[in-house]
Amino acid sequence: MLSGISTEIYGQTFRGVVIDLESRIPMRDVDVIIDDGLRIVRTDWQGRFSADSVKAGLTFRRSGYIIRRVSLESFTDTIGLLPEYNRLSEVVVYGRARKDILKNMGLAMKIKAEGAVAPKPSGKDFLSFLNVFDRHYVSKKQRRKRMKAIENY
């Protein structure tokens, strides 16, 4: 026996473990193709496999990983697979800027440069409707109505 490989007289039996080369974790459900597709064996949940009567070599294949071909001479009991990455060489983003955003950005830049306090944004606060649940909240309309009642008293 050589390095965990057991041999038979009329063929060879190969046993080993398939791991992810980056994380060093055993990989399950890897297709181990024996002798150029004549037979296929799958790894178990611990990444282990056993292939009998191998004559030409083994090919290891799994989705998302680079296919690896191993000859009989270079076989070891641990086979590592590299993840397959799709790299983009260049990314170009096109878009249009809204004029009001650019104006507000320019205003903020001026204020920041002068050291003044930035004005509050105009418009309603998008969370102002939550004030309805506050029992002490009085709307502007009710406040004006009360002020008129006090003035007319």
Walk me through what this model shows.
The chain is an alpha+beta fold and 153 residues long. The chain has one domain: Carboxypeptidase-like, regulatory domain (Immunoglobulin-like, Sandwich), CATH 2.60.40.1120. 19% of the residues lie in helices and 25% in strands. The protein has two helices and eight strands, in the order E-E-E-E-E-E-E-E-H-H. The strands form two sheets. Strands 1, 2, 5 and 8 form a four-stranded mixed beta sheet that branches. The chain has a four-stranded antiparallel beta sheet with strand order 4-3-6-7, with no helix packed on it. Strand 1 and strand 2 form a beta hairpin. The longest helix has 16 residues, at 99-114. The chain is rod-shaped, with a radius of gyration of 35 Å. The protein starts with 5 loop residues before the first strand and ends with a helix. Mean pLDDT is 76; it is low at 1-10.
Write the layout of secondary structure elements.
Blueprint: E1 6-7, E2 12-20, E3 31-34, E4 39-42, E5 48-54, E6 57-61, E7 68-71, E8 78-81, H1 99-114, H2 140-152
Parallel strand pairs: 2-8
Antiparallel strand pairs: 1-2, 2-5, 3-4, 3-6, 6-7
Structural features:
Immunoglobulin-like, 8 strands, four-stranded antiparallel beta sheet, 25% strand, alpha+beta, 153 residues
